[in-house]
Amino acid sequence: MSPGFTGSPLDRADRVRNDAEAYGALLGDWRARILGLDGLDPVLAAEGGLVWHSAAELSGSEELILLGLSDGKPHFVALAEAEGDVFRSPAIWRALSMLPAEDAAIYGTARSLIEWHNGHRFCGKCGHLTTLFRAGWGRKCGNCGKEHFPRTDPVVIMLAEYDGKALVGRQSRFPPGNYSALAGFLEPGESIEEAVRREIHEEAGITCGKVRYVTSQPWPFGGAQLMIACIVDAVDDAITLDTDELEDAKWISKEEAQAALENAESRTFNAPPPFAIAHSLLKHWATT
């Protein structure tokens, strides 16, 4: 199973982003579709997929971001001045559990771009207002001319492994019984391997060695992030918890992981949802 928010069917059409004539033709295409959003949350059709509106339904004042093309048909999302809930509500969790994988990938791209635009309305160099350009894939300062482009923040997410067991933890904001892989942002001047070892040691007090990359996933909440999933060998299993970061941490067997992934009655904890890379990582570890 591919990680969530991957596999978008849209052609991102980078070739038209700097071509004013080609982009203008897309804006005027009667087939253009606009992604339906409620604030920053997806609007779902009765069958569970995304809702798309006709361009004729627009007022004409919207700023549009080109998400891409499908069979030549342009797909846009309107830039909304909305703030996302970093910790996310049960409503968005339910919506994401219903979305087909391809729709979730499209939505994730749209949400990441909107949140980036809302956080970069002023130039980081001179402080003046910026305006949208490159079909919504950049902003440009009207004063100093500096161009700003969307960025992705790298995050390591990992399972420490020791004697056939893996380390999982939970934060106080998690729903009762939920555990996940540990995670943290890469810091400047740090490799993926160094970040994995540092985060495990900071949060659980465990020294680790060899790091093995597994997979990656874009994550659209709280800004655009790239989740880099790894498994790391632990030197020992003595947990010293950083209670500012984690409420609890524990070692689990592969049988416990399988029970959680299958939502079995015998499970000892609740696994992350299928669209989260922590789910994919736990499944990879439990089945290899």
UniProtKB/TrEMBL annotation:
It comes from Sphingorhabdus profundilacus. Pfam families: NUDIX, NUDIX-like, Zn_ribbon_NUD. Residues 150-277 form the Nudix hydrolase domain. Its cofactor is Zn(2+); Mg(2+). GO terms for molecular function: metal ion binding; NADH pyrophosphatase activity. This is NAD(+) diphosphatase. InterPro entries: NAD-cap_RNA_hydrolase_NudC, NADH_PPase-like_N, NudC-like_C, NUDIX_hydrolase-like_dom_sf, NUDIX_hydrolase_CS, NUDIX_hydrolase_dom, Znr_NADH_PPase. Keywords: Hydrolase, Magnesium, Metal-binding, NAD. It catalyses: a 5'-end NAD(+)-phospho-ribonucleoside in mRNA + H2O = a 5'-end phospho-adenosine-phospho-ribonucleoside in mRNA + beta-nicotinamide D-ribonucleotide + 2 H(+). One of its GO terms (cellular component) is cytosol. Belongs to the Nudix hydrolase family. NudC subfamily. GO terms for biological process: NAD+ catabolic process; NADP+ catabolic process. Its EC number is 3.6.1.22.
